Amino acid sequence: MRIPELLAPVGSMEHLKVAINAGASSVYLSGKEYGARKYATNFTLDEINDAINTAHMHNVKVYVTVNTLIKEDELEDVINYVSKLYAMGVDAVLVQDLGLIELINKHVPKLKIHASTQITCENQLKVDYLKSKGIKRIVLPREMKKEEIESLDKDMEYEIFAHGALCYSYSGQCLMSSFKGGRSGNRGTCAQPCRQKYKIDGIKKEDYYLSPCDLSLFDKLKDISQMNISCIKIEGRMRNKEYLAIVISAYRKALNKLKSNKELKNENISLVFNRGFCTGLFDDNPKRSLKAGHIGLKIGRVIDSQKNQIAIRLDDSVRSIPENGDGLLIIKNNDDYGFEISQPPIVTSLNHFKKGKFKQMKDLTRKDRVLVIKKVWQNKKSTFNLNESDVYLTKRNSLTKKVKEIESKGSSFVKSKLILTFSIKNKFPLLKGRLTLANKKEFNCEVVGNTPFEKPLKKSVSADTVKKQLQKTDNYPYQITQINVNYDGTLFIPISKINELRRNLFEKLEKEVVESFKHDTKTIKLEQNKKENDESACSISFYTNNLKHLEHIENVKRVYLEIPNADESLSLTNPNYNLNHMINFIKKAYEISYNKDYELIWKWPDITHDSLIKTLNKVRGILNKMHYSLPIMSNSFNAEYGFYSMNVTNNATIDSLENYKIVTLSPELTKKDYEDIIKNCKNPQKVEILVQGSVELMKTRYPLLNEKESKRNYKNYLIDKKNNRYPIHKSISSQELTIFNDSEISLLGEIEHLKNINYKNFAIDGRYKDDDYYKIVEVYTDALNGHVDENKLRKYSSKNTLANY
């Protein structure tokens, strides 16, 4: 059994103290820039320094998130920011940007790097690549299943999310906020469009299709302790301190109980913010949230509702009985009604209630309990019949007291061990301390008092009195394990001087502990890439999954071919790979393209869990034996061609992907960003830009429809409140859905400018388009030759946008 590290979210200095007191092993926080939660309070550099000092004194590690994508003009600033974090003694940084990883390895090589979940490391190939880059820990996607985690190489630290919000999309693979609201999740400013209601074409009712229930693996901690998981992470840097205190303390107690092979139940975690709980894909049990906001703890069901009272049949397992001042939420279908209890409720037995008797139960743990509540007339009245509604406890006043206890009386999970030795040297008191931290670091300090011992005029200070004064820890996170007093108790010194001696030693030990984590700082100056002269011609690449496109397309250098899923229903199933379909599709494509002028490249799905990789490699092996050999476009960080979902936003990332012939830049970039990149690019032939096509807004492993809805076939469109229609398509794995933008990005009018600043490769995405969409290539060929025809473009693409450009 392995008890994992408990990692807590921290959005402020106040939250840091709560996390430490509640029992966190480590905390993660962010500076004002470069963190994926830009709207949290976050920390100044001075505050980060104070946080690191405080945490290290309490044997708590500090990880700073530097997990946004870094733009070209930010590289020097961010590597100097990271250098300052290292000098302060941060234990690790969480990073998404591949280029930043490269810069840290070069300029701050001793700093530990944790790969953010936004890197989307879902298979062993990516683990191997990140290991080769010196990554010490990988935060796995929330979409990983238990058996998939267990199959990964054990020679790596893995961190998983155990509690908190779930994104509908794979982290790092969501562009919906960026393209629909101009706020990028990859830059820390997500607007959470997933928490809105949508429609599915064919279903009249709006619902929270993109809003999963929150994750809670609290009841799976025993399973986790038997896996190769180093750390469990609690999400919630933007949550309040009540959430932090209750959740961290609950997980700490449960983890401690596991040491003696005991498991705990805890209802309190449901009483702080949650959208309902599920175990997500850890054991393949995701659920859609009922509301975008807090739901609370389900306690029962309304069995009777009259003018002056509501009767609730309590679930037998519930131990949190609502009290006066607590809040309830009643939900029935799409309706809800919330209120605060303003009179002490009565808990009676079901038998008494049926007889019209409201006799208060003495044993509140019994079964068949009914909670009777007087209605609160001054609140908003319900607009629906409350009978047969589910009831949730959303607020519990008694938790406030618990939170205050954690704030004021809590202490760090692991205390440092301290041995004290008191003696007299030349009549002056001498106190030595040997402090051992949880990481086995040892510190030896001594202090000498400034007041000598004297012969007593009345009463001497005994050795027991000295020992008693030395036992006080003054709120320092020390556990005094031994006190040696080498003094016979025959002399006098003011007690205040013994206390002063103790405080001086503690302060000196604190200073030494804090300084032991520090490093020298240095200013880093990045060198500009030496540009190569490139007079080569421009080229067009074309994405497709339509064999008819291959027959007619001309004037393209590369065709990226994706195998479509033969099943276009919205239901997600277990892997059931159709080898014949895959082989025959590639074989036909190869035969069609054999005498064509373009290079045919097989585009693998962007999300490839290991079971799919094994299948794709099997297909490739069979094709190779048939002499159908194709280069691969893959996001494995180790292929020949890279799709825009690799989130390339700077030259450091381009240079780090050494094996790639072509990498496509992120479509989130602006015109200035494109200009900055190409200005410093040493090999423009390696860079490609998407100039036309529907951008992938989300990639998800969560089902869009529930079991009942999946039994009917609906059209594959998600519809928002403005009636925008977003196409939905299923990956070849049958386990992922991709939601595309309703309009196409089109940089037709910018082609001349992009060409003039030295861009060479331009891509058009024709996947899931009409059979004649390939003709749009002619529009861009003309544009490269100086003739832009917007009217001709609209023949093939009627709804276009410059997006973030």
Give Rg in angstroms. 31 Å
- On the 0 to 100 scale, the average pLDDT is 94
The main pleated sheet reads as: 10 strands, mixed
Distance between the termini: 52 Å
From the spread of the alpha carbons, the general shape counts as globular
Uncertain ranges: none
Task: Label this structure with key terms.
22% strand, 22 helices, 805 residues, Elongation Factor Tu (Ef-tu), domain 3, 27% helix, eight-stranded parallel beta barrel, alpha/beta, TIM Barrel
Please, could you describe this protein's structure?
By secondary structure, the chain is of the alpha/beta class. The protein folds into four domains: 5-166 and 213-266, TIM Barrel (Alpha-Beta Barrel); 297-395, Elongation Factor Tu (Ef-tu), domain 3 (Beta Barrel), CATH 2.40.30; 416-515, no CATH class; 539-703 and 743-801, TIM Barrel. The protein is 27% helix and 22% strand. It is built from 22 helices and 36 strands. Strands 23, 24, 25, 26, 27, 28, 29, 34, 35 and 36 form a ten-stranded mixed sheet that branches. α17 links the parallel β27 (641-642) and β28. The longest helix is centred in the middle third of the chain and has 22 residues, at 495-516. The model has no long low-confidence stretch (mean pLDDT 94).
